[in-house]
Amino acid sequence: MVEKALLDSGATENFLDEKTVQRLKLATHILKEPQYVYNVDGSNNKAGQITHSCQLELTYGGKNIKQQFFISDLGQDRAL
Question: Which of 4, 21, 23, 76 sits most deeply, having the most CB atoms within 10 A of its CB?
Fold first, then answer.
């Protein structure tokens, strides 16, 4: 399945919503060390620590690259 999206949230890392991971049945990996997530105002994110990630293959500038995405609850916004 090929999903197309172009997003620039300004985040310092790549994130995927846990519901999207489940819907697309993506393989996940447990992180060696959980990662904390902070909101733009410096407060802790309500989703808590990130414990899982997944690798996705992206086409960027005509090249295929593998990129790590951290899995978290991203709220109501969705890329469909």
Answer: 21
Q: Is 37 helix (H, G, I), strand (E, B) or coil?
A: coil
pTM of the model: 0.73
Contact 76, 61 (CB under 8 A): no
What's the count of helices (H) and strands (E) in the chain, helices before strands? Answer: 1, 4
Give the tens place of pLDDT for each residue, 18-77. Answer: 888 998 899 999 999 998 877 778 887 777 889 999 999 988 788 999 999 999 877 665
Distance CA 80, CA 68 (A): 20
Alpha helices in the chain (DSSP H): 18-24
